[in-house]
Amino acid sequence: MKSIRSIIAFSALLLAVAYAEAQPRLPNFFGDSMVLQRDQPLRIWGISGQTGTVTVTLNGQTKTAAINPKGGFHVELAPEKAGGPYDLIVSDKKGKTVLHGVLLGDVWFCSGQSNMEMPLKGWGTVNDADEEIRNASYPQIRLLTVTKRVSTWPLRELEGDSWQRCSPNNIAPFSAVAYFFGRRLQQDLNVPIGLINSTWGGTQIEAWISHAALSNDPYYKEVMKAVQKPVSFEDLLKARNKKEKAMQQELLKDLPSAGDSALYRNADYDHRKWSTMPIPGAWESQSHLSGLDGIVWFRKEIDVKPEDAGKPASFHLGKIDDNEQSFLNGAALGATQGWNIDRVYNGVLKAGKNVIAIRVEDTGGGGGIWGDSSELYVSVGDNRYSLVGTWNYRIQEVRTSRNAIGPNDYPSLLFNGMVSQFRGMNIKGAIWYQGEANAGRGYEYRHAMPLLISNWREHFKNPAMPFYFVQLTSYNDNNGNSTAGSAWAEIRESQTLTAKTVPHSGMAVITDIGDANDIHPRNKKDVGERLAAIALHDTYNKAVVASGPEFKSFSIAGNKVTISFAAAGQGLIARDGKSLGGFELAGADKKFYPAEATISGDQVVLQSGSVPAPVAARYAWADVTDNANLSNKDGWPAGPFRTDNWPGITVKNKYDPKLK
Fold this sequence. Notes:
The chain is an alpha+beta fold. 18% of the residues lie in helices and 32% in strands. It has 4 domains: 4-104, Sandwich (Immunoglobulin-like); 108-216 and 413-538, 3-Layer(aba) Sandwich (Rossmann fold); 256-399, Galactose-binding domain-like (Jelly Rolls), CATH 2.60.120; 550-638, no CATH class. Strands 1, 3, 4, 6, 7, 8, 9, 10, 22, 23 and 24 form an 11-stranded mixed β-sheet that branches. It has a 6-stranded antiparallel β-sheet with strand order 11-21-12-17-14-15. Strands 13, 16, 18, 19 and 20 form a 5-stranded antiparallel β-sheet that branches. β14 (323-328) and β15 form a beta hairpin. It is globular, with a radius of gyration of 28 Å. One of its GO terms (biological process) is carbohydrate metabolic process.
């Protein structure tokens, strides 16, 4: 394995654009107002256009090191206590570089997908956003947001990103979870906190893991043989364009005439020979449509009861990417532009067969009717007609794709583009909020998550680096439960297993503060503060409560199952004052039924009249966990669990690294 000195030297060489610069140059994550990690050796490196030596000065320390033949230098200062602001001065015989306002404190790398990315106010808005922004004057907290970039090779430079002092003027677009996490640490520890926000919504975990780590991992190495060697970004674009061109040529063979497509809205048009696909879902989920941009018509028939005919009806068509025109029995219902807007229109149904036709235009990226299944229905008074399920579809127009390479299109694109630049930098630890994009492979996540942690610990050269993450919250992804199966329950289990088996890791349970109808719940304060409590307890050895009740063991006696818990704190309670909910029992037939639950000390006793001979118990095993209300008296919720190991619905789903 390369030494850290040789790695830093190599990084320094890649910084060079010319060796005749007037002053030393540092990697550009070094900057004014930055935070350097306290209590660890301070590594300063870069390039110089000179020969001889480079001198580095910080807080009274001065060290000199030789410039190597290729212009690189590396200086290591002794650890410093928290403090500042200081000037960091790097000089050679021709000039000097001075960084102003540098603090010594704790640096945390904050990453994941959209729930970590979600700002205090912007494309999403947290609870009490205006008040939080107004009060965000914390000069001891420094912020760095990494520009979104994909790359097939590890990058060594950021793209003009710079550190900022936390203030009401700049906090609004910053990661809300990271901010609330850092604020709690700064308030409790009274030391400077540096927060690096490296996030990208909708991204899969494999995008954040290095190509080498995936290729050498016992679980992933077989599938990674399909992409054994990293390729240049230009080669990847060429391969994408070739693939999409071939797909488009195939689709062009079967396009309708203009006269035929003009009839698609009509109720009496015969669409029985059209292809079908499940809705909701982007049409990219169909392998032969994976790169399609253009226009697609969708049609679905619903049979309406006589008593609902002629009455006002509300048509909930979910979210449609990008633009759409909707028709009922040939008459216009409405039209909307925008990929993430809920379509809700009014109309009147007739008795018997009714036909809904939707013309969808996709201008780039994903396309189709992709809203949540709970958003797809027609309502007449108290009656509902579901629109979830099989729809017929027909392509009207194929357009030249403008799709760029996305972060999930190939392995490691975000590790290379948004993590690799920090190699050699000392940090205190990392926090992570991701998993929604991997829920369909929830069982596999028990391999992916530990691999990410070990990969990043190697990257930051700290095998015991604290790594704290958020378990997925309550959200109605697909009406999942113990009967139908729940992908979200399965990925939560994988996250729990990671927290239990990976040293120096911890998990914040937030199933009590989600929103069943919003994948981006607005309560980010509690999320960040729960992560901070775990860090305070585990990393800083503070006497704070940082866990809810944790499943420990179970026993069966007759028709009763007794669940024992650890981390019960001051005692178990139903946090809303109601009867305990969320518990289920099953017998040998593997059919689960709600269970009556009674607290007895640090245990919960379960029984169900529908299960006279129970063999398994589950808690909060569903997409939506709103009725799961067990917590400790300290206010921390119990996490989901099960006592069985019966195969779930995602166990056979595997990562495919080939170019999308």
